[in-house]
Amino acid sequence: MKTSVSLKINGKSYQDDVEPRTLLSDFIRHHAGLKGTHVGCEHGVCGACTVMIDGKTARSCLAFAVQCQDHDITTVESLGTQEELSPLQQGFWEKHGLQCGYCTSGMLMLATELLEHNPTPTRDEIREAISGNLCRCTGYQTIIDSIARAVEIKAGTALEAAE
Amino acid sequence: MNVKAKAKKSIPASRQREVPGQDLKWIGQNMKRVEDPRLLVGEGEYADDIALANMLHAAVLASPHAHARIISIDVSKALALPGVHAVMTGEEVAKVTGPLPCFGSPPVEQRCVALGKVRHVGEPVAIVAADSRYIAEDAVGLIEVEYEQLPVVADLREAVHAKGAAVLHPERGDNNIALQRSFKFGTVDEDFANAKTIVKRTLRWPRSGAQPLETCGAVADFNRGSGKFTVHCNTSMYNYVGWLWAVSLNVPAHKLNIVPTMAGGSFGSKLFLHKVPIIAATLARKTGRPVKYLEDRLENLSSCDHHGSDRYYECELALDADNNMTALKCDVIDDYGAYFQFGIGHHGNALSQITGPYKIRSVEANITAVLTNKCQQGAYRGFGSEVSNFVLERMVDAACDELNLDRLAFRRQNFIKKAEFPYFIPTGNLYDSGDYEAVMDKAVGMLDLEGWRKKQAEALKEGRYIGIGLATCQERSVFSSTEFWSLNNVPGFTLTSSAEGVSVKLDALGNAVVKLQAPFWGNSPETMAVQILAEQLQLAPSAISVAYADTDSGLSGTGPGGSRYTVMIAGALVGASKIIRNKLFLLAGHLLQAGKDKLELRDGKVMVKGTEQGMSIADIAMQAHFFRLSFPDEPEFDTGLDANYTYDHPLTTLPSDDRTDLGIFYPIMGHMCHMPVIEVDIETGKITFLDYVAVHDCGTIVNPMTLAGHVRGGTAQGVGTALYEQYDYDEQGQFRSGSYADYLMPKVMEVPPNVRVGHVETPSPFTEYGIKGGGEGGRMGTPPALAGAIEDALRPLGVRIDALPVTPSKLRGLIRQAQAK
């Protein structure tokens, strides 16, 4: 019943023999060992498990791993490291955009997609971009602050690079 | 008479060692959280991140019926499925594992897997361990159960009269009343007899719940060689009452080690888990292999240990001729669901601040706790006191409406004044300090109330309905354990300790390791500990790391709950720091040839006061750990630089035997004023936020940024409770909120875009630095503020809000009714 699945996650290949019904979220967490993608509801409402498939955000609990063969998967592990946080992660840290941290990876992926298409979003555009995901801790306001802060950080970095 | 009674009562002396108002370096700063970097890169260790070698996965067969006798269970097909290692029914589980912990008295028996009877939809009927969760769930689908359905009790008022087969726990008597008790505090009959006005309302608070995004989970291992369990779990209170799991598992407490994982949110709902870890541990012992059990979302919604309060109130408020509130009477029925794990502790919470910020001098509370065919009640941000805040503020608004009084002026008139603290309320609890007028004044100033009143009037001319809400509520903090039993008819286990311990070690290089006895819960325990210890030892925050003790190494630790953790860990850290500071001064005094009283801590060094002579903490630490012969041969110089300190509750007394006085049990009293401005679309019932001001007084603030985070997050949950959320059961006890498409929580479009947070700091005279708790407040003020705002908006239509949640469709119904009049 098992089938060989090889997924490219964050540019690296992960192969395992899994049942065809294995969810992408389970493959990422338990077969690829990337635990930064969190599972909240497993029915596509909360968005905690949001990753990118070919550059577009998707809920990894609503996809089967086998469907993602030959597609590019991007998870929170593709962003920064603790030693060198990405501008978005830095923005979340500075603006208290997280408390328990469980929804954070999904929010970071939504924000990554937003800033790729719209590098200088308004607060309303940020709101719209995160409006499909649940956060039970923050009341969302500081998540918006965090993404806005990341835009400033990026602009600052771009300025430094230009200088 | 009340005055005389008050005069007799004494207040224990304050044990505060660090007074408020000092010049502080780290406490009070908006320090970025030390927890965050690892969470931001996806390196938190949540329950599902624990993986042990040879680990199996559990799944649970849930009852489809609200109330039924289990006639037979056939597990043969499930057991025959390849990859399945164990299938256990309630009967098999009961042979090795006893009932779950219950703090109610007399206890209501609850098992991790139902034995003989199911009492709510979602209750576990059988459990499976298999090679994967997928196979375990396949096996669950192969279990065949024959049920005989029993009469269902799904309505709390009908539950009071249930008899015979509709009784959930017949061994407790032929009724579904879990506990019934009446309390009178002060001269309530006299005050009602003398009242000029009596305001009456019937109010309904709906069953909602915390719904953290991470469900409850545990990984259990049983070592057959040592006969010892190790259980990793996202529970709290394990260093307080975790040993009760051992009782359930029929092993001595030292044969169980509980290891905390990080929790992806709790808000009370992981306060003390039992069903999930006991299921995992039972299967681990059966199979001889580690077992992971993580609830799926449906299980968490329908069968977690922690649904919130579900209450029906009939209330009366007495006012004298001068419109002073004098007495409050509440008849409340509370739907506890099928079990009774915390007794009516939730009403202890309510009684700790039942009179709010007001000088109401007498109270009658008639409490009926009923059992119904629903998931049991547990803890959710407020633990029942958020309900009494709603009730009292609704009564206050109702009094203003009936007497045509200004909502601000009436509150101001009835507030306890700043000079009157510490203040005993009629129930016997003490409010340590407060300045309620300052909080309300600040909120009114921040909101621009006059400006909004003008906009409201202009909007109304255009047929738009703007409303301004006002709630002035208490946030009790730092519970004492007497509330676990003081309301019981049969007190049961009358514990009086609820301490918080800490271990602090300075290593040989002078860096500090703090070991907490409670878990990360989604709050900021590491940041709090770092800021407070940095202050105490004048260390750089980067020189401090934080770890979490398991139960093998743990001291007593009650953990977060009742907004107590920051206050309690501050007390523990101050105690531990004083021991370490003494040792540093002892060693440095010897090495520097200076008296201890001549030394002080300055920027990571021990310095001789008034000089530039000193030694770094790092150098002293190296001496302390490795150079014993540098010091005299006295025991006080022995090797090491560490301290364990356990801080007891700062201010608590026993209740009186007749319970006309509940004693001091929740005295560190915060306060808040919430003022939302909303617009109601009367065609759709949709509510839009135009502004929101929330001013809180949590005493001395350790970190304004994280406190504001609690306020805003709590406010969002309060919006959910007030407008959207409900665990909905039909009359047959079928659960209709089994997914996030049915249990509706606010996303970003449903919350205020900008909750403007203000702080007033009235320090506690009883806690270190004057800190008060502040973790729950947002949710404790928002529901009444919103109910008032909706009424204010729809005043031209005469809509009254007596029940939550005010969903758009319910509000449309109320508007339609009002327009038909």
Secondary structure blueprint with pairings:
The complex is a heterodimer of chains A (163) and B (821).
Chain A (H helix, E strand, L loop, with lengths): L2 E7 L2 E7 L5 H8 L18 E4 L2 E4 L12 E3 L12 H8 L9 H14 L5 H8 L10 H22 L1
Helix pairs in contact in A: 2-5, 4-5
Chain B lengths: L1 H7 L27 H5 L15 E7 L5 E7 L1 H5 L3 E6 H7 L20 E2 L5 E7 L2 H9 L2 E6 L6 H4 L17 E9 L2 H6 L3 E9 L11 E7 L4 E6 L4 H4 L1 H6 L7 E5 L14 H13 L3 E4 L2 H7 L7 E9 L5 E11 L9 H8 L9 E9 L14 H19 L3 H8 L8 E2 L5 E2 L4 H12 L1 H13 L3 E4 L2 E7 L22 E7 L5 E5 L8 H13 L6 E5 L16 H28 L6 E4 L2 E4 L5 E3 H10 L15 E6 L20 E14 L4 E12 L6 H20 L31 E5 L17 H17 L14 H13 L1
Helix pairs in contact in B: 12-13, 13-21, 17-18, 20-21
Can I get a quick summary?
Chain A has 163 residues and is α+β, with helices and mostly antiparallel strands. Chain A is built from 5 helices and 5 strands; from the N terminus they run ββαβββαααα.
